[in-house]
Amino acid sequence: MIGFLSILCKSNSLRSHSSKISHLIQNSSSKSIFRSTHLSNPINNSIPSSIQFNFGSPISSASFFLPGFSVKGLAFTNWAEKGDGLSLFSNSSLRCPFKEGAGFLRLRSSAGGSRTFSSESERESINYDVVIVGAGPAGLSAAIRLKQLCREKDVDLSICVVEKGAEVGAHIISGNVFEPRALDELFPLWRQEESPVCVPVSSDKFWLLTKEHAFSLPSPFDNKGNYVISLSQLVRWMGTKAEELGVEIYPGFAASEILYDANHKVVGIGTNDMGISKDGSKRENFQRGVELKGRITLLAEGCRGSLSEKIIRDYNLREKGNAQHQTYALGIKEVWEIDEGKHKPGFVLHTVGWPIDSKTYGGSFLYHMKDRQISIGLVLALNYRNPFLNPYEEFQKLKHHPAIKPILEGGTVLQYGARTLNEGGFQSIPYPVFPGGAIVGCSVGFLNVPKIKGTHTAMKSGMLAAEAVFHTLQEGSSMEAYWDNLKKSWVWEELYRARNYRPAFEYGMIPGLALSALEHYILKGRSPLTLKHGKPDHEATDVASVHSPIHYSKPDGLVSFDVPTSLYRSNTNHEHDQPAHLHLRDPTIPERVNLPKYAGPESRYCPARVYEYVINEQGQQKLQINAQNCLHCKACDIKDPKQNIEWTVPEGGGGPGYSIM
Amino acid sequence: MKIMVAVKRVVDYAVKIRVKPDKSGVETSNVKMSMNPFCEIALEEALRIKEAGLASEVIAVSMGPNQCLDTLRTGLAMGADRAIHVDAPPTLYPLSVAKLLKALVDVEKPGLLILGKQAIDDDCNQTGQMVAGLLNWPQGTFASKVVLDKEKQVATVEREVDGGLETLCLDLPAVITTDLRLNQPRYATLPNIMKAKSKVIKKVTPQELNVEIKSDLEVVQVTEPPKRKAGVLVSSVDELIDKLRNEAHVI
């Protein structure tokens, strides 16, 4: 029987040869052998027909024969991960499949807490060679590159991409002036087919704004050869390309936990349980999450990815990479459809100055895409000091500038959205490899701040990780090769050259601009020193008493709008009856610290008005969390002064619905 | 007994729609599409009836261009056994759909045809009623509760009507259209979605079914409803009467 086991384990790795596996499974005697070996597995005798089906299918049967010990470790950590006990439920309607290693999951009474039930329903476990979290530029580039390598070497690897958005591209938002360097490497012939990358940059303007004027300055950017695109559209296009190559992409499923084995090696991810109501009980359509196990797991969650942050902390990846903390900015953006006469496809504009004060780093952008559509947005570094600053209102103010407003007048807003982005650059890159996988894209932080482009480096990092993954799986080499590949690539060189621009602004806007000019025109990135970042963003907020509230004017409904109107345009939707996905580590801190000391900054920096201080019946101000508004921007996770707010992933399929952002 | 469920691919309910600049319709490119919520409820009800042992097979049916296959795969992932795709132009009016459904019913001979009460893109609320008329089957529309009696071959349907709830007893085969409170549809699980990807979906054309789908209706123009004007504060009753008479012309 051991020999039989080993045969089945071997065929497990060639998962695509499913017919072979199913042929082996057809041998009905094997089924009965396995049932009897699960001695401590009191499986219910009433097995619904769905289970028979599962048993017969090659996918689940293959997982059935996983080495038992790996699942044991799994069981322990699964219970440990569910700290709040919300996902521990009895499964009264027996739909749980008859699964492997079930004996170890019978730790029924040990989980503790009032929310634990006596029988934990097992999750179905599906195996892949590679599991990728996030169908963004980095994740999809990794998947596509892997499949390309498979074709070159005539092998096959099963690749699964899970995406928390309802569709591929639904959570993708970016400026975006796209440098096609990585795309040229990924798809050398992409220009010969129809793609969303079709509007070349036609002009590049840079203005310094004051309240009434706009002064044209020489553009610090060189956008020749670049394109104005909607990144959401590009990612959708990449998604179809990936599926054509055989990548399995599953939107609507949120990876909410990491799965470990007994040696604390990452073996995959677990998706959210769906159908839990606000109070934590099961709804009518409760559905247990699934475990997606991969020989390698790649995290491509974008900036401040929730699982990536856990992994970075867990494995001390910042210390390992000699990296500083990451610094961030919040970008708020709208796509407008403007008058035909005002539209100039390929027009690129960046501004600095008004309405942002000299102590805050940020700027705005205005890009003309096709079909009379333009992208306009404001990016504000999150290490701003004034807790009364409201990035959303600053954006509305910007649109009223006499040089900007005429462009927008007569137009309509099509979509609105917001997302944080990395500004740490070279100094903040953690070591991106962990036992069992690696992190790619903005979850590591490859954005080139002076260029304000991160898509091309994110894609390249995905491709480099793919190459390391391929060699690891095929030849048994180590994933450390990813780190080495990164350091030898143009990503490293580019970020190294760009490393001092942003930190220079810690000394103020004028020194910052001066140093930028020095770097750009004279030193050209060969400066001997590397400047360090200032305080982490959440520590940079001053107390409210040293600032005064900022008065923002009411929206005019034509060019500026209130938050609910803008939110409606983001197509944000969450299943209302689910527990809030924003956790307060200490529920008393908002009223004890945030409100009195910092005047409740979360009610101002959140671009979706998730956080509101409302007066309750006792006349006190209490924090109300409108979790269903959340745009998944992660600003609260970054900027909360006491780091009390933890952004966790809600039920898959919720969140914004960007299509042209 | 087989159950046939008709599902429609519509603009997702959470999407903010806008009218196309040329006013020919609603902008559907680059817009998220999903299964009509009432169709999901219909499919869920069919699945529950099957799980209760009162039916042997659930067949999901959709009509339109190839994108309908996504909706059918969602249906298969939820638990439908088979799916049929009728390859037809994207704009099909309820009568054409009803005729196609009748043709499919004549082929598959289900004991129950369940549909959503209306589609959220056109809000017609006609297809179920029309197909019942064409088939000469009893109909229970706006169902908020369905109880099947297999032996007596009868469906007891509680309907939500303007005055409250009405209970009807329908002899099978029958047509039922579902309302919101009937059930809460299940999530399609990841393993089921994976399996549904490889299932074969049968494709038929209106010609094969001998159905003429040409419609006598044509959409001429689609416009947004007029924007709500701000209210006007009046200072006295006389002013109110004056405005009602001379401006609003209602008295």
TrEMBL record, chain A:
Keyword Oxidoreductase annotated: yes
Note describing how the cofactor binds: Binds 1 [4Fe-4S] cluster.
EC number: 1.5.5.1
Keyword match Iron: yes
Known catalytic reactions: a ubiquinone + reduced [electron-transfer flavoprotein] = a ubiquinol + oxidized [electron-transfer flavoprotein] + H(+)
GO terms under biological process: electron transport chain
Coiled-coil stretches noted in the UniProt entry, renumbered to this chain: none
InterPro entries for the chain: ETF-QO (IPR040156), ETF-QO/FixC_UQ-bd (IPR049398), ETF-QO/FixX_C (IPR007859), FAD/NAD-bd_sf (IPR036188)
Alphabetical keyword list: Electron transport, FAD, Flavoprotein, Iron, Iron-sulfur, Membrane, Metal-binding, Mitochondrion, Mitochondrion inner membrane, Oxidoreductase, Transit peptide, Transport, Ubiquinone
ETF-QO/FixX C-terminal domain: residues covered: 558-659
Subcellular location: Mitochondrion inner membrane
UniProt domain ETF-QO/FixC ubiquinone-binding: residue ranges: 328-421
First-listed, main subcellular location of the protein, grouped into a coarse class: mitochondrion
General function of this protein: Accepts electrons from ETF and reduces ubiquinone.
Annotated family: Belongs to the ETF-QO/FixC family.
The protein's name: Electron transfer flavoprotein-ubiquinone oxidoreductase
Species in which this protein is naturally found: Nelumbo nucifera
Lineage: Eukaryota, Viridiplantae, Streptophyta, Embryophyta, Tracheophyta
From TrEMBL, chain B:
InterPro entries associated with the record: ET-Flavoprotein_bsu_CS, ETF_a/b_N, ETF_b, ETF_beta_N, Rossmann-like_a/b/a_fold
Keyword Electron transport among record annotations: yes
GO molecular function annotation: electron transfer activity
Electron transfer flavoprotein alpha/beta-subunit N-terminal domain mapped to chain residues: 23-213
SMART domains reported in the protein's UniProt record: ETF
Localization (cell): Mitochondrion matrix
SUPFAM superfamilies (UniProt xref): Adenine nucleotide alpha hydrolases-like
One Pfam family it belongs to: ETF
Subunit relationships: Heterodimer of an alpha and a beta subunit.
Function text: The electron transfer flavoprotein serves as a specific electron acceptor for several dehydrogenases, including five acyl-CoA dehydrogenases, glutaryl-CoA and sarcosine dehydrogenase. It transfers the electrons to the main mitochondrial respiratory chain via ETF-ubiquinone oxidoreductase (ETF dehydrogenase).
Protein name (record): Electron transfer flavoprotein subunit beta
Source taxonomy: Eukaryota, Viridiplantae, Streptophyta, Embryophyta, Tracheophyta
